[in-house]
TrEMBL record:
This is RidA family protein. It comes from the Bacteria. Pfam families: YjgF_endoribonc. Residues 6-142 form the Endoribonuclease L-PSP/chorismate mutase-like domain.
Length: 154
């Protein structure tokens, strides 16, 4: 068991099997030492968790939990891209977080912190990253958050 797998176990996180795409795209692409991970939603056991719109029917706390689950699904794709060895990760370069939000909602960064905090918890300083947190008037399948990532690997 690698160091990152041990860290995940310490955190009580079991990564799911990497999800299959829901449309015409691939879940990740590696070019050189970079892995680009397609947007991951808050899906667990094939079901959307915390659906809806921040500022309407999803609380800030649940939005952050939703983003954290997106981050867990990003890690599942990353593990697949690394042939099962997350110790190959050199750095989380960038996360882009989308928040299904009402026009009056202003706390997008606090929501996407759910995913950002996870990356630092798992990878330490290698998990610190550049980031965008943006609003969207809707997201696929009614999800409240979506996170995509760029990761440098060995």
């Amino acid at each position: 068991m690698g160091q990152i797998d041990k860290r995940l176990a310490e955190l009580g996180i079991t990564l799911p099997v990497a999800a299959k795409p829901v449309a015409n795209y691939v879940p990740w692409v590696r070019t050189g030492n970079l892995v680009f991970i397609s947007g991951q939603g808050p899906v667990e056991d094939g079901k959307v968790v915390w659906p809806g719109c921040l500022g309407v029917d999803v609380s800030l706390e649940d939005g952050a939990k939703s983003a954290r689950l997106c981050g867990i699904n990003v890690l599942a794709q990353l593990k697949d891209a690394c042939g099962g060895d997350l110790d190959r990760v050199k750095r989380v370069v960038k996360l882009v977080g989308f928040v299904n939000a009402a026009p009056s909602f202003k706390d997008h960064p606090k929501v996407i912190n759910g995913a950002s905090d996870l990356m630092v918890e798992v990878f330490g300083d290698k998990g610190r990253h550049a980031r965008s947190a943006v609003a969207s008037p809707s997201l696929p399948m009614g999800i409240s958050t979506e996170v995509e990532a760029i990761i440098e690997v060995e």
